[in-house]
Amino acid sequence: MKHPFVSLLVAGGCLVLVGCESIATRMKQREEVTRTWPPLTQERIARGEIKVGDDFDMVSVALGAPDGQETFTAKDGGIVTIWNYPKITQRFERDEIVNYEDVSEFDVRTGQRIHYQVPNRQKVYVSGKEPGMQIIFRNGRVSSLRWGGEAPEPAPTADNQVKSG
């Protein structure tokens, strides 16, 4: 191939377009809602980006439907909703023999033909789900997000800010 870098760019662009297609489809399906958003919000959601303050519709269009959700009332009376987006995993489990191939060779030492079978193997993977991203809504707006298995990072304060220079 003359220009492998160009091919990588084209392949990468195709992957981006495939990912954007589902967001574009969701935006079109929810057009009556999405056209009420400011243009900058529409562009951000079209990139699949969410932020604190976004509503259910914005997150649903940007990320798709959650895998599961919980809703409860907080002590102060606010409604808290948690949307779960799991991390899909695959792990190698084993090699499995799927069939045998007949092989025939001529043995020059003995002058005879040798027949035997060679197993054809296939790798078996197991899919699973691990805790992934959780979007936490308070009274219908994104208040925070958290990654499963990770402690939330502390908010920057004067004591723990990184100083440049």
UniProtKB/TrEMBL annotation:
PROSITE patterns: PROKAR_LIPOPROTEIN. It comes from the Bacteria. This is Lipoprotein. It comes from Synoicihabitans lomoniglobus.
